[in-house]
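Thread title: Can someone regenerate the structure for this chain?

I was given the following input by a collaborator and told the matching structure tokens would be attached. They weren't. Posting the sequence so someone can regenerate them.
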Amino acid sequence: MHTRIPVILLALSLAACEPRQPQDVPPPPPSTDNPAAAPAPAATPADATPAPAQDPASTPAAPAQPAPNAPPPTEPSPTPKPTASNATPALESMAIARPSAKMSVAADLRYQFDAPVREGEPATLHLAAIPRVAGDNLKVEVKSEPGLEIDHGTLALQKVQAAGVYRQQLSVIRRAGAPGKLSVLVTMDMPEGTAFGFFSIPLAAGQIQGGNPAQKTDSVKQR
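Best answer:
Regenerated them for you:
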């Protein structure tokens, strides 16, 4: 027992004599008073190229957005097609109205119905006056007849040229007891005076697309 005590004391003496390892001490913080002690900024790589600045004018604008309360877009309505009554017939397809035996006006009259003229049913009558000479105050008027309902509209022009085509369109309804033809008066001022002429237009269904050539007048009458 007494032998172990000196051994233990010797071991403790030797342990106390061993040199202690110094602990790592952290470096002091850099001083703000010494600029040299401040850490240097990170170096920029030599091959790094700065990004080009964007031009605001070259930046594409965002598409315009519709207003929250804007109505939905509507599709354009299709263009209405002209009806048969509104379509203008070709001059060559129109029949030539028969002139009266006594006339002085230097003009021709052509006509065409858009449908057969049946009793109680409206039909559109297309007229075309063609002066053979230049003149003034050209008038084309359909005369009233018992049993015929005509949407009267007198064609009146102050000046006309030779070979000009002057059109008129009106509605005709045939009633019971109506005559079988229309009478159209054409007047025009000419150098010799006021000339006139009556033209006959048949209402029979079989004569809608046909016509008789204009007859030469046997006499000339002026008023």
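The radius of gyration is 56 Å.
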